[in-house]
Design a protein that fits this description.
By secondary structure, this protein is α/β, with parallel strands linked by helices. Helices cover 46% and strands 14% of the residues. The chain has 14 helices and nine strands. It has a five-stranded parallel β-sheet with strand order 2-5-8-1-9, sandwiched between helices. Strands 3-4 form a two-stranded antiparallel ribbon. It has a two-stranded antiparallel sheet with strand order 6-7. The relative contact order is 0.14. The structure holds adenosine-5'-diphosphate and magnesium ion. Magnesium ion (MG) binds at residues 39-40, 119, 161.
């Protein structure tokens, strides 16, 4: 079955092609793009569309590759064997009781094929991707403590996301199918908004989108607002029932758009926008 987006998620043709290509090649799909462009949501929606379970591994700066395989809790075992525990002697002796399965283990041993999301891989240590190469390639790994090999019953569909905070190693890139989610153009953005607010008035949508894309065009912004921020902002505008003419007449009445806190996330950007609006007003 091919992925074509869902009723909740707008996927451009290129993105659909990328998902299906990675699936055919049985290679991880590496998705890059600005924060808020729907990378994490893509994995959720691919799983939903293909009717598969989604196993999510969210990466932090402290995450180590081996945690995705398993962790052996030697300390608890030592404590239990010395101090006694609710577990019987036999159970303490069985090392398997002290092995905590990681997300790859879970994905490999699942009855049915699953989607495995490795989210924000660029958060981790530079060695992290390389440390997973072998396991992702072979779809198996060895558990030294118990001597067993964990082999994938079904190759999971792997989606890896990155916000581009760090470069990924070449050897890792070679094994992935890559797609960059471009920031949505106006037409795609309107489609995305319509998924979230199917009843939004066309005028309000147009005015809000104009302002949003103008703000994104302001040179030198520290943090450009993203799709998810536009969605938040529209939610506030709709909740407050702000008529579209307030947005329209805003250059003259107010320096910056109402409820801008949903779009701009630091004071430098707010100042920049105020200055720009001030200059525009003086010119007119
Ligand atoms: N293509 C899309 N279709 C529908 N909603 C989208 C799309 N892209 C982004 N969104 C909205 O933006 C929010 C943030 O997306 P998310 O997947 O968390 O972004 P990322 O992981 O790239 O930072 C989503 O919860 C969704 O509401
Ligand atoms: Mg994300």
């Amino acid at each position: 079955m091919n992925f074509t987006g869902t009723e909740n998620y707008i996927a451009t043709e290129e993105l659909q092609m990328a998902v299906n290509a990675a699936k055919t090649l049985e290679r991880p799909l590496l998705i890059k793009g600005e924060p808020g462009t729907g990378k994490t949501m893509l994995a959720e929606e691919v799983a939903a569309a293909l009717n598969m379970e989604l196993i999510q591994w969210h990466i932090k700066s402290t995450t180590r590759a081996h945690q995705g395989l398993y962790e052996y809790d030697a300390v608890s075992r030592l404590r239990d064997s010395q101090l006694g525990s609710q577990l019987g002697n036999e159970e303490v002796n069985d090392i398997a009781n002290y092995i905590k399965k990681g997300k790859l283990w879970e994905a490999f041993t699942s009855e049915k094929q699953v989607v495995l999301l490795i989210d924000e891989i660029d958060k981790a240590d530079i060695e992290f991707p390389n440390d997973l190469l072998l396991e992702l390639d072979k779809m198996e790994f060895f558990v030294y403590e118990t001597g067993e090999t964990i082999k994938a019953r079904h190759r999971p569909i792997i989606i890896i996301t990155s916000n581009n905070e760090k470069e990924l190693p070449d050897a890792f890139l070679r094994r992935c199918f890559f797609h960059y989610i471009n920031f949505p153009d106006q037409k795609t953005m309107a489609a995305i908004i319509n998924v979230h607010y199917p009843n939004i008035k066309a005028n309000l949508l147009k005015e809000a989108m104009d302002i949003f894309f103008q703000i994104r065009d302001v040179p030198g912004l520290k943090k450009k607002p993203s799709t998810s921020e536009l969605i938040d902002w529209l939610k506030l505008l709709l909740a407050d029932d702000i008529p579209e003419d307030i947005l329209k007449g805003r250059d003259h009445s107010k320096a910056i758009p109402p409820l801008y806190g949903a779009l701009l996330k630091n004071e430098q950007d707010v100042h920049r926008l105020e200055k720009l609006a001030f200059m525009l007003r003086r010119e007119s």
